[in-house]
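Supplementary Text 2. Reproducibility record for the structural model of the 248-residue chain.

All settings were left at their defaults, and a single model was retained for analysis rather than an ensemble. We include the record here because the model underlies the residue-level annotations in Supplementary Table 4.
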Amino acid sequence: MQLKLRIWRQAGPQAKGYFEDHSLDELDDHMSVPEMLDLLNTNIIKSGGNPIAFESDCREGICGQCGFVINGDIHSPNKGTTTCQTHLRSFKDGQTLVIEPFRAAAFPIKKDLMIDRSAFDRIIQAGGYIGVNTGQAPEANTILIKHDLAERAFDAAACIGCGACVAVCKNASAMLFTSAKVNHLSMLPQGAPEAAQRVTNMVKKMDAEGFGSCSYTGACEAVCPQGISITNIAAMNGRWLWTQLTAE
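Retained model, structure tokens:
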């Protein structure tokens, strides 16, 4: 299998970026996209060049750090799939792949395909916690939670923080990410005591980080590799509004 690659190169956040062309022959269609880049970097290093910087960790579709844009598709041309789980059989022999990083002001480019997602960390730090007493863990059966509620909380908690929702949004909104993190705690009794403070602080921090507003087009849900529902956004908006109306 042969592929032609146009890959974004950028030395740092303030540097001017450009596309660099490469060609790879004799590729195995079972290879993943990061494995293809590993092979390309081996060739570049052998020729004395500067390897392409990109992120990956688990390479099992769990962490989401591998994410970038391929021919305009966030993560992958396949629905519900991370970049690391995208295999070369998803493309045609001889096809040109244009590979570039996620584009958002709140995600500055560190180098090449690597972006800075630390804004997400700061949103979580602003309120993503629950207050518990220290000491021995409580018996799980002492706090009964209905099955459907636990499932909905788990679905929200599945967010891996990859940033695909921000990258696809025309406003670069982080509402899907933030609402998932707010709701997965607030829906459970353990997270109820800080629910009002949590939603206020996290939304405030999200705005301060420079993410755009949500126009509820649903593009975020469509590209989310975990299928996080946009109903989380509506739920968070309702929780936030109620908090503001009832604040003393």
